[in-house]
Fold:
Amino acid sequence: MSERVVLVGYGPVGARLIEGLLPAVRDGRIDLTVIGAETHDVYNRVLLAEYAVGRADRDGLDMGDRLVAEEAGVRFVLGMTVVGVDRDRRVVRLHDGIRIPYDRLVLATGARANVPTLAGLERAQRHRAARPGVPDQLDHGSAPLPRGVVALRDLADAEHVRAAVSAGQRIVVLGAGVLGMELALAAAEAGAEVMVAYHSAAPMNRTLDENGGRVLAAAATTVGVEMMHHARAESIVQRYDDHGQAWFDGLVCADGKVLAGDLLVLSCGVAARTEVASLAGLAISSGVLVDGASRSWTDPHVFAIGDCAHVADPADAGADGRVPGGPSGLIGPGWRQADRLAALLSSGVSSAGAAVPAPVERPGVVMLKAEGIDVVAGGAVDADPFSHAPGCHGPQVTLWADPARGAYVKLVTVDGVLTGFVAVGMPRTGAELTLLFERGSELPADRSSLLRLDAPDTGMAVVADPFAADATVCWCNGVSAGAIREAVAAGEPTVACVKASTRAGTGCGGCVGRISELLAREAVPA
Structure:
């Protein structure tokens, strides 16, 4: 008899799970039903900014193949939200009253954009314990965001940004994380007037140290993005059009300054959608609490993956009930969770038993996708350069800065091994450090030798070949340069073909340039 699996959420991580379950669906071992709030096919939200500024077309966002899944026997129930789960009867209830039974329930509900606490946006804030309702109001508070304010989390938001960019309007981006900076730089390049407002002293403060962020801010300024640091937003002001409709007109800061604009893009992070799990009585923290097998701490028949999943060991819970960590917020870990869960569900092995320890995720590397501005960082980079004297045990820091020319490097090592780094405006050095960081390699005794990689006509050999067979090219999918070469040898000589055959470049898109460079190298006759 088939095991009934119900998947709630049809985003990139859910689509990856569907793909992994297709063999078991075709064999009749799994009866899969997919419930999604949106009515269209799954698309890559990470690349919405690329679409919003005209760098990607709509078809380039599509992921998965619903037709193939339907032909295999997968049932899709789209335009629906789950409003309740009866765990005793193992039934999910949809907003229109339909009930769907399950043997295994998988939550891949993702995350929604954080709406900051600003006067004028109060009604748009959604409490995490609010009951789910109809699909169109899944992410709304008691009212939608005001006109002219978007969070760039779905296609409708992207269309608003696309229209503003096409018209050359003034865009205010609130928040200077990776996504906010990528949007701001791309929109400015496309001809929009862009300002970025952020609370911290420097942008990307969760990824870069302050000095690296300040060099990035200077580089952004040179390409036309107005950077407003220590801008503590307090409210928005609105204007009224000829029809009496209110539109965003400016962002008011604590110092009284008004940042005028035509469109406000909120880039203030995300929060897991946990309301379905909460109503079902499942343990939640910053996400649905699951073990290393993505199994709920509360119910062995329920699983969670992706941005809604907080993977942790139950033994790590503190006496006050707090659980360290949280959802990764990155697509790569979500895809790996989906792959592991697909293997578990397809195996037919009971999910009951002792908690499975959380898998060890290798530290991620963050690359800023921006034309002409090279930023890459990985690991912990906040170590104090002067906290350890030479020869002492503990993190040691090497710094090199040339702010006038937009270049900065910070290396953090423990016993000679690179544990964290920042490279701004140093593309070859950044590529080398990425390889050394990935492999846990020791740095050369002369740290300054790494800096010479970006010198013109240096002629220096790199310490680690960024295109060696085992070098990771795509971090989201863990695809190596060797795997891409094999795809090329098999007759897949274009970026599109490599994406289709290896999945490289289908996540955040940060590796597409390296894929293109590798293909160019392979095309050069020996």
About this structure: DSSP finds 13 helices and 27 strands in the chain. The domain at 136-269 is CATH 3.50.50.60 (FAD/NAD(P)-binding domain). The radius of gyration is 24 Å.
